[in-house]
Amino acid sequence: MTREGAEATRRTFLSGFIPERELPLLEGPPAEAGWDDVDAEGGPYPRLSAEFWTSKQRQASNLHEISYRACYKPQLPRHFIERLTKPGERVYDPFSGRGTTALEAALLGRRVAANDVNPLARMLAEPRLRPPEPAAVQARLGEIPTSGAAEVGADGLDLSMFFHADTEAEIRGLRQWFLDRDAAGELDDLDTWIRMVATNRLTGHSPGFFSVYTLPPNQALSADKQRQINAQRGQTPPYRDTHQLILKKTKQLLKGLEAAQRKHLRFAAQDARFLTGDARETGTLMDGCMSLTVTSPPFLDVVDYAGDNWLRCWFTGLDAETIGRGISTPRTVEAWSGTMAAVFAELHRLTRKGGFVAFEVGEVRRGKLRLDEVVLPLGLRAGFKAHGILVNRQAFTKTAHIWGVGNNDKGTNSNRVVLFERR
Ligand SMILES: C[S@@+](CC[C@H](N)C(=O)[O-])C[C@H]1O[C@@H](n2cnc3c(N)ncnc32)[C@H](O)[C@@H]1O
Description:
Elements: H1 3-15, E1 34-38, E2 45-50, H2 75-84, E3 90-93, H3 100-107, E4 111-116, H4 119-125, H5 134-143, H6 165-183, H7 189-201, H8 223-233, H9 242-254, H10 259-270, E5 273-276, E6 290-295, H11 305-316, H12 320-326, H13 333-350, E7 351-361, H14 371-381, E8 384-392, E9 415-422
Parallel strand pairs: 2-8, 3-4, 3-6, 4-5, 6-7
Antiparallel strand pairs: 1-2, 7-9, 8-9
Helix pairs in contact: 2-3, 5-7, 5-9, 6-7, 7-9, 11-12, 13-14
The protein binds S-adenosylmethionine (SAM).
S-adenosylmethionine (SAM) binds near residues 70 and 100.
């Protein structure tokens, strides 16, 4: 690519693709940017490497602060939502995880749709479109029994290596409340909010969690491993006041939420679509209804889904083994491409003419495998036009500004986003 061509592309990537929009321009050009070409059908396509979304930008809403494996920063979907959609248009994520795309789109006044094969994803995302007032959460917590639920250990499940007996009684009280309310068809927004917060407070490494020191909530350890940690650290689970912790986390999540954002969330919640299923089969979503998709698929790594989520699934009444079987974890690039080709075919059906898909792949195999180069032909074959690839780099090392060579491929956490448009 010529220097002029690269500069023009960089400007477009920064400012957006909708001519009549007033777009939030980044302050001047990024400090350092690199570019090269990627060959594919109808190409070459520009690949630009820069700090597109940075920590210096407007801070993300606290409402995002829910842990989920392999989630991305809200600034990533925001970059594309602001530049490629207008308020009221629908933004989609077929691999939505904790719902970063959906929540950010909703906060920005867009309609949303989200899908994930893991039912926990919906439980974590949907309640945050309907944030309650802390006083209402406190009142509801007051109704939930802190004891008297199924006797601790009565079901043969020993959780004593994670929780103090009184904490466990409270957790079982919460669990039973949600299961009973659900069975009676009485589960409301307050319940789903509290369940979402509690699911995230179950286990972790600080006193803000219900458990004694352990791994973060998205990677529950086995009972045996936890016993080992307890022995190594000489720890026994202390009592934690679960209701106080739920209230505290609720306040943290809601901190700084502005009236305009609440209004946007209410608008999005009216007709938000949350699906639990395979990204290749979303037949209940209408043709051409999406203006933008921002998504990050599962990568080639092996995730022990059942192992990581057994405690959260127990708490929410889900079967971790069954869910684990539905999660796509192709081990080879060929198998991964086969799955993603079918996802692209479905995205092509769902995207309106002139709509966009921003498909993110992270750093895989320490940067040795460039999945963006695998993704590019998949989108083209599905019928999309490709604009190119944006590589967002967190921080530049002095020696690493020459594209394709350099230290950034090692250890840093860059996002590679292939940008397509539906013709
Ligand atoms: C990299 S994570 C996405 C995280 C998300 N961007 C966020 O910020 O939370 C990939 C997600 O894809 C889901 N997944 C895996 N296979 C799937 C499939 N075949 N269809 C739909 N979702 C799938 C996983 O459950 C996981 O939540």
